[in-house]
Amino acid sequence: MSSSSTEEVLCVHVFVSCKPGTEEAFKEASMKNARNSAKEEGIARFDVIQQIDDPTQFVLVEVYKNDEAPALHKETAHYLEWRETVADMMAEPRKALKYKNHFPGTFGGWDYTEGASLE
């Protein structure tokens, strides 16, 4: 894909409501998953964000470079470990919404820079 044209990425926002008292354990497990997910070829970004006024609420912002990447991600050992680890921490089933990006229009606007410190 050329950087001069718009490159479509799949943006998935996963909304998670944790049981009170599990926020830190959920955050720790999700950060571990995100660190590994960010290294996957098909992932441009993998963010973990927590609501300020209700720390039991999280959103995982997953940006995939192609339509096959989400399925490949769900086959990884780190995802399977995350899913098992956090299953009992969730107050309700997580909800994922898929979006098409319009800006930034290139992978360069999403990708982590090689060698960049993420923490």
Q: Which descriptors apply to this entry?
A:
119 residues; four-stranded antiparallel sheet; globular; single chain; alpha+beta; 3 helices
Produce a short descriptive summary.
The protein is an alpha+beta fold and 119 residues long.
Structural description of this entry:
- Helices cover about 25% and strands about 25% of the residues.
- The chain is an alpha+beta fold and about 120 residues long.
- The protein has a four-stranded antiparallel sheet with strand order 2-3-1-4.
- α1 packs antiparallel against α3 (about 75-85).
- The longest helix is centred in the N-terminal third of the chain and has 15 residues, at about 25-35.
- About 20% of the residues are buried.
Radius of gyration (CA) equals 15 Å
Percentage of residues in helical conformation: 25-40%
Which strand order spans the largest sheet, edge to edge or round the barrel?
2-3-1-4
Which descriptor suits the 3D outline?
globular
Low-confidence stretches: none
Mean pLDDT, as a whole number? 89
Please give the largest β-sheet: 4 strands, antiparallel
User: Which class of secondary structure composition applies to the elements?
Assistant: alpha+beta
Number of helices: 3
SSE string, helix = H, strand = E?
EHEEHHE
**Strand runs, count:** 4
Oligomeric state as shown: single chain
Proportion of residues in extended strands: 25-35%
The separation of the N and C termini measures 30 Å
